[in-house]
Amino acid sequence: MTMLKVISEMIRVGQKLGMYRLIDGSSGNMSCRVEDTIVITKSGIQLDELTPKDFVVLKIGERSREASSDLKVHQAIYEKTNYKAVLHCHGVYNVVLSLIQDEIVPKDLEGRLFLKKIRIVDGEFGSDELAKVIAEEIARNGIVIHRGHGIYSAGKDITETFNKACYLEHSCEIIYRLKVLRKDV
Question: What are phi and psi of 86, to 5 degrees?
Fold first, then answer.
């Protein structure tokens, strides 16, 4: 896929992230690997209002002050896996459940089919240790939640990556609502 098509898809997914309430303000970030480069959102931008100027293109391993503050996590995932896209978002339900649980075991059909069990990891934002823990869990399962912070998802393209994050947020909402109703959770 050409760089222009990749950026176009990322812009489309950014809009969907806003519509699905998986981001707020300038939270969240995403990237795609295109050959030996990474296209990543800039720091401080709003994903639901992306333009082609809101991206930084870097070689794998290269650093940039313009790039998302999560660049270290994206780099670690690309160095450890063959995934082509990484997404980080902050849906309300996954963040809430991450504060009271250590893993998410979906109750709904799609969650059970596509996700299985999702680990919730701890670590200091921006640290090398957290980037390593997230990358290891992504290599194992393709998706993880950072406690109190949100979902990190990876896939063959940004659409698959977005879908995984949606499945997980939906599963978290189901679990949350069951807890409110005090049903078997």
Answer: -135, 140
Burial class (CB in 10 A: 0-12, 13-18, 19+), 123: middle
Question: 25: burial class by Cβ within 10 Å (0-12, 13-18, 19+)?
Answer: exposed
Dist. CA 96–CA 49, nearest whole Å: 26
pLDDT in tens, 51-96: 999 999 999 889 999 999 999 999 999 999 999 999 999 999 999 9
Dihedral over alpha carbons 98, 104, 107, 112 (to 10 degrees) = 140
Q: Using one digit for the tens of pLDDT, what is the confidence trace for 121-157?
A: 999 998 999 999 999 999 999 999 999 999 999 999 9
Structure-token pair, residue 159? 């659409």
The H or E element containing residue 39 is strand 37-41
Please say whether the beta carbons of 3 and 31 come within 8 A: no
Q: How far apart are CA 60 and CA 161, in angstroms?
A: 19
pLDDT score, position 185: 62
Would residue 176 be called left, alpha or beta, if left means φ above 0 and alpha means ψ between -120 and 50 degrees? alpha
The angle formed by the CA atoms of residues 182, 173 and 140, to the nearest 5 degrees, is 115
